[in-house]
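Hey, I was hoping to borrow your eyes for a little while. I've dropped the whole record in just underneath, so have a look:

——
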Amino acid sequence: MRFNPFFSISLAALLVGAPGALRADGVVISEYLTDNVGGAVDDDDDSLDWIELLNTSAVPLDLDGCYLSDEPGVNKRKWRFPAVTIPAGGYLTVWASNKDRRVAGKPLHANFQLNDDEDLVLTAPDGVTVVHGYISPLTAPPPGADMESLPRRYPQETNVSYGLKTGTQETAYFKTPTPGRANNSNTAIAPAGPVITEETHPAEPPPPGTEIRVTALIRADQGEPPASGGGEEEEENRIAEATLTWRVMYQPETTVPVPMHDDGLNGDAIAGDRIFTGAIPATHGATAGQMIRWSITAKTTRGTTRRAPQRLLAAGPEYFGTVIADP
């Protein structure tokens, strides 16, 4: 039977209507997972998104009337907690399942699921004050001033969670998710670099001897610390360079990456829209029926770099790709 974090730990730690419990100050969203495949299961035996909350204080904290939301810019009161209390140092798992179940003493299910381009916040019973959460560099429009100091959340891969290193406010990816338990810092990977999403390439297999045009939405994270360490004159973080690296079948990768452009030239549709375009040349050498695969790398003016796919897990995707048409 697969691990069910509610029944194994959260249920034992959960107090319903505990006398003397305080409000939610001190509760943090310590970990969450946006793409759960074959991992922790809910009470319906479904592998779904989940959100883990941790009471960092030395006293029980009451969540009655608090809220979770994945779109605080629109509605901070999206899903309301029932009368549940997290004991001192305890954890509570909420399934981001869209099943909307909020009966105290039973597994909790929010009325939304998690996506990479959304914020995630815990809001106090007043429906306004953000207790803790994460803001996405992908959010449009940007979050309000009351959320600007929240940690960033970044796109995840299947079965890789994100949250806080145990005992710190430092964010990280976790290659071993631990819903309902302390986060495993031994599997933590610090996030860094631009955010690369929405990769596209021709839907139909390209004919032999033709170029392959690739696009991606690439954004510099304005939450990255300035390279100089600060200062009012620090320039806005920007994408300094974006490239495509490709390979045919299992041959070595090309030694000369292909530049990607956002200048309205070189095959790019619109200048400055952050959609970068590059073309694997028609001389790539892949013949009918062969795979051709590629990765995208971007670097910011603040010196950070990120590759997509990230491949945080060895079993994760290493490349984007296609197969050359075989007439």
